Amino acid sequence: MSLLDVSDLRVSYGKALALESVSIKVEKGELIGVLGPNGAGKTTLLKAISRSIPLQGGTLTFKGQSLENVAPYDVVARGICHCPEGRKLFSELSVLKNLQLGAYLRKNTAEIDADLERVFTLFPVLRERQWQQSSTLSGGEQQMVAIGRALMGRPELLLLDEPSVGIAPRLKGLIFDSIQQIRKDGTAILIVEQDATSTLRITDRVYVLEHGRTIREGTSKDLAGDEYIRQVYLGV
Ligand SMILES: Nc1ncnc2c1ncn2[C@@H]1O[C@H](COP(=O)(O)OP(=O)(O)OP(=O)(O)O)[C@@H](O)[C@H]1O
Ligand SMILES: [Mg+2]
After folding, report:
1. 0.90 surpassed by pTM
2. Atom 3 of ligand 1 has which residue's CA nearest to it?
3. Alpha-carbon gap, residue 98 to 95, rounded angstroms
4. How far apart are the first and last CA of the chain?
5. Which residues contact 230 (CB under 8 A, 6 or more apart)?
6. Tens digit of pLDDT for each residue in 168-225?
7. Number of structural domains found in the chain
8. Any idea what the CATH number is for the domain that residue 96 is in?
9. Ligand 1 binding pocket mutation candidate from 11, 22, 42, 191 (most atoms within 8 A of CB)
């Protein structure tokens, strides 16, 4: 049984089909990438998994249990946390408050404190800036808050939507390093990205999504050598 099993997923916005047939699996502790151009359906896929949009067909299971009729907050309680496209921070609130909001369903304060410490170890700059209003942080630092907030839900599976977009190159490396560290600490990750080079470097396996369909899948090593991937996604 896979940790996450998405099979033949179909999603539309009104009459427009966004996901036609998407199948992906994530095993416990894996770091899996989804590559694809603008409009391919990457964000739609993550929103479908976190149950924030309705499904038109297919199946979706997490740890063997269907997520089809599960509310978004219950998806979090079951162990999936979503770090959304564009970060979606509460910009007028402090860094610390944003992080604490990620733990809103949890009660064990000792565990919450331990996880906050873990986020500050992963992103030391956030410890220094914890009292600062989050809108005053740089794009890269705001992305760290968004990832940290998702970690505060103590996920078994972390969904990351384009964490490297709009970030200075120096911080981009730091973000990809932190993603590898989160996985080393035992959290499975499904990352959606347009930076194919970095994604193929850090992931175990990758799915390629085009026009709402998975058109390629394989180990990152194999796909990095695939002629089509090299031409279209790596530009070599
Ligand atoms: N709320 C919405 N209402 C109507 N159509 C939508 C909506 N959100 C997305 N779409 C459409 O669904 C398709 C998939 O969009 P989606 O945002 O999932 O793509 P994406 O792969 O995440 O793209 P990007 O790389 O630009 O973020 C696109 O054709 C998009 O225009
Ligand atoms: Mg998107």
Report:
1. yes
2. 13
3. 5
4. 37
5. 224, 236
6. 888 889 999 999 999 999 999 999 998 999 999 999 999 999 999 999 999 999 999 9
7. 1
8. 3.40.50.300
9. 42
Beta strand 80-83 with 157-161 is parallel
CA of 43 to the centre of ligand 2 (A): 4
Task: Quote the ligand 2 centre to 38 CA distance (angstroms).
Answer: 7
CB 138 within 8 A of CB 171: yes
12 in contact with ligand 1, CB cutoff 6 A: no
Instruction: Tell me how far apart the alpha carbons of residues 115 and 2 are, in angstroms, rounded to a whole number.
Output: 26
Q: Residue 25, SS3? A: strand
Domain range enclosing 39: 4-234
44 within ligand 1 shell (Cβ under 6 A): yes
| Tokens matching residue 17 | 């089909």
Ligand 1 binding pocket mutation candidate from 17, 44, 164 (most atoms within 8 A of CB)? 44
Tens-digit pLDDT profile for residues 116-160:
999 999 999 999 998 999 999 988 999 999 999 999 999 999 999
Give the DSSP letter of residue 94: B
* Alpha carbon nearest to ligand 1 atom 4, residue: 13
